[in-house]
Every structure is written in structure tokens, then in C-alpha cells.
């Protein structure tokens, strides 16, 4: 990856080939079944946006992580109860009151997110800059610009690894160690900020599931 630019901006230099692989965000609906842990928790926090309920924290090693819930998933139902129009406190209370076993959660796969596949050049660069996880600049004629990466979007995953809450240096290291083909999962920054504005940064950084 490229050097760090002015004002601490993490820089990724250009790439000059075409390439786009099939995105891994499908936006489909699925039903998950999970159980609470020994503390009576499932390791999940949500945020309410536009009358919908969205996952904003999945704790590492939690029941929520084990069944595959991810940042940005939209929760549609909990044990048959539709949650559209509910606020975060109502949904958290609903989850607390669920029985220990066989909790049903129906989700839509990350409706605000999309994937962009990039290819590194011989120097390991792909062509964009980011700061605090937000894409702020694209390099012309780069892999990033050719494949539809957008500014004012936040990086959520790199090749399936959640990077929400990580520092720019840590995200940069993950990209540098990635193979030549990099699949970025991104979300519009205004949605990201809405989801995260009531979250404690240290809680997200220290407990979010950052596994692949």
C-alpha cells in the first residue's frame, strides 16, 4: 500500500487493469436460529434507521457471531414479531426477553452495503485514500476508479474480514497482507455515522467480531 499522506490520510496508490468479480453481498432474506450464552446474552446491538432495525455490533465469539450475523444486517423479525418501526431500546428489550434456546431472527443481508473488487498492481496498490475508515479520494485510471469505488463511503470489510472500529493503520496492514484480488465491502458514510453515533468507540474496537 502507498504511504501516509498529509493530515494522516492513509494512501493507496493506483492500479491500471480492469477487473470486477461478483459481489458477496446478496441482500437476500434468511432465518437464523441461536441460543443465549451462559450470561443470557447473544452478543448483538442494533440501531434504528428509516423505520428499520440494523445490526451495529456483533461481539467476537458470541452466539450472534457464530450464526453469521454481520454489521449492517437488517433485522426483520425476532421470534415471529416484526420489528420494523421499533427503536433500539425496544428491540434490545425484545431480545432480552427471548427464551434461552431456539431464538429465531429473520434478517435481510446488509441492504445498505455493496462489494467492489479491486486488483493490486505490481507495487501492491489499488488507487484510493481513506481516513478514519472513510474513502475520501480516488486515483484516476486506477483499479478503484475503474471498478466503481466511491468516496464518502466507509470500508466495512476487506476480503470478508470486518474492519469496523479498527484504526487506519490496522486496515492498511490488512490490505497490504491481502492477495492480489481485494474485495471491499462499503457503506454510504451518512448511514454508517447514523448507525454508529450512539456506539462507544472503545466498545466497538474491543468487542466487535473482526474475524474472517
From TrEMBL:
SUPFAM superfamilies listed in its UniProt record: PDZ domain-like
SMART domains reported in the protein's UniProt record: PDZ (SM00228)
Gene3D superfamilies given in the database record: 2.30.42.10
Keywords associated with the record: Repeat
InterPro entries: APP-Binding, PDZ, PDZ_6, PDZ_sf
CDD domains: PDZ2_syntenin-like
Domain PDZ: 31-97, 115-190
GO cellular component: cytoplasm; plasma membrane
PANTHER family in UniProt: PDZ DOMAIN-CONTAINING PROTEIN, SYNTENIN RELATED
This protein's name: Syntenin-1-like
Amino acid at each position: 500500500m502507498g504511504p501516509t499522506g498529509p493530515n494522516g490520510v492513509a494512501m493507496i496508490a493506483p492500479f491500471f487493469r480492469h477487473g470486477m468479480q461478483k459481489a458477496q453481498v446478496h441482500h437476500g432474506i434468511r432465518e437464523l436460529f441461536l441460543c443465549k450464552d451462559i450470561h443470557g446474552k447473544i452478543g448483538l446491538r442494533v440501531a434504528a434507521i428509516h423505520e428499520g432495525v440494523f445490526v451495529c455490533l456483533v461481539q467476537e465469539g458470541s452466539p450472534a457471531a457464530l450464526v453469521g450475523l454481520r454489521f449492517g444486517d437488517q433485522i426483520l423479525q425476532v421470534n415471529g414479531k416484526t420489528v420494523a418501526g421499533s427503536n433500539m431500546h425496544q428491540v434490545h428489550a425484545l431480545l432480552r426477553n427471548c427464551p434461552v434456546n431456539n431464538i429465531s431472527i429473520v434478517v435481510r443481508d446488509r441492504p445498505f452495503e455493496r462489494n467492489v473488487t479491486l486488483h493490486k498492481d505490481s507495487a501492491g496498490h489499488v488507487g484510493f485514500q481513506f481516513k478514519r475508515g472513510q474513502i475520501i479520494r480516488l486515483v484516476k485510471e486506477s483499479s478503484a476508479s475503474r471498478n466503481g469505488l466511491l468516496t464518502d463511503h466507509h470500508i466495512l470489510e476487506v476480503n470478508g474480514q470486518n474492519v469496523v472500529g479498527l484504526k487506519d493503520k490496522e486496515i492498511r496492514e490488512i490490505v497490504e497482507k491481502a492477495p492480489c484480488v481485494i474485495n471491499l465491502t462499503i457503506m454510504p458514510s451518512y448511514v454508517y455515522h447514523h448507525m454508529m453515533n450512539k456506539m462507544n468507540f472503545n466498545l466497538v474496537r474491543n468487542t466487535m467480531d473482526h474475524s474472517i
